[in-house]
Amino acid sequence: MLIFTKLLLAHLIGDFLVQPKRWIVHKEANKVRSKYLYIHVLLHFVLTMMLLWDLKYWKLVLIIAVSHFIIDLAKLYTTPLFRLRSIPFFIDQVLHLAVLYAVAYYGNLVGHTIALFEKLDWPLVTAIVFVTFPAAIIMGKLLEAMGEKIELDHKSLPNAGKYIGIIERLFVLMFIILGRWEAIGLLIGAKSVFRFNDLKESNNRKLTEYILIGTLMSFGLAIVTGIIYRG
How far apart are alpha carbons 28 and 76 in whole angstroms? Predict the structure, then answer.
């Protein structure tokens, strides 16, 4: 676990802390001809060796550096194929983490992976999954008839309400698991403050009632899920 932690730390420092924006721009423009691509990979090699502080790992670190070069190069050439730049970014990071995991546990990769899955708290995983998109879909169905009666006179980000609901339910579930019920009240208060201005300007009673019902339903689903999990 310590080796993986050090490898992960080296990756985070190399990819996010010490990589200037101009390096990224230069790599995207010049791709394989960019000198910063090679400097970036070399920096990863040096950082990883420094954190491990043991020359016997140099072959493993070399594997990480070479794979990092291949993954980054693939991302540079495939990014224009995606409408959202965030997609290749996350694919890139997942691949890097997979390499680090494989290198850290190469001696017992299959056994460690199986043990890792066996230790998972599956009821917690189920609870987390439920309060995300399944709960959002259930709420959408329950509020569908009411939503058709609401006339919106302002624009908002696409699916913003759905993602806000998912995040707030995850927070509520976390607070219940930690036994911090008072934090749920603070979360409701904070959301009310942010919503107050919109509701004040719209002066729409139906919209106010719709948001109130949606909020209470969202919190209610998360609370019930948390109670079932803890029970």
Answer: 6
Neighbours of 224 (CB within 10 A): 13
159: alpha, beta or left? (left if phi > 0; alpha if psi -120 to 50): left
pLDDT at 197: 61
Euclidean distance between CA atoms 92 and 94, whole angstroms:
6
Domains in the chain: boundaries: 2-118, 122-230
**Apex CA 206: angle with CA 202 and CA 207, to 5°?**
50
Residue 200 three-state SS = helix
By CB neighbour count within 10 A (0-12 exposed, 13-18 middle, 19+ buried), where does 203 fall? exposed
Q: If you average pLDDT over residues 216-226, what whole number do you get? A: 95
* 83 DSSP 8-state letter: S
User: What's the rounded Cα separation, in Å, for the pair 102 and 96?
Assistant: 10
DSSP code of 187?
A: H
Residue 185 near residue 91 (C-beta atoms within 8 A) = no
Over the range 26-46, which residues count as b (16 or more CB within 10 Å of their CB) and which as e? bbeeeeeebebbeebbebbbe
Q: What does the alpha-carbon distance between residue 92 and residue 11 come to, in Å, rounded to a whole number?
A: 12
| pLDDT of the residue at 212 | 84
- Helix boundaries (H) for 13-150: 21-30, 35-52, 58-78, 86-104, 109-118, 122-130, 133-142, 144-147
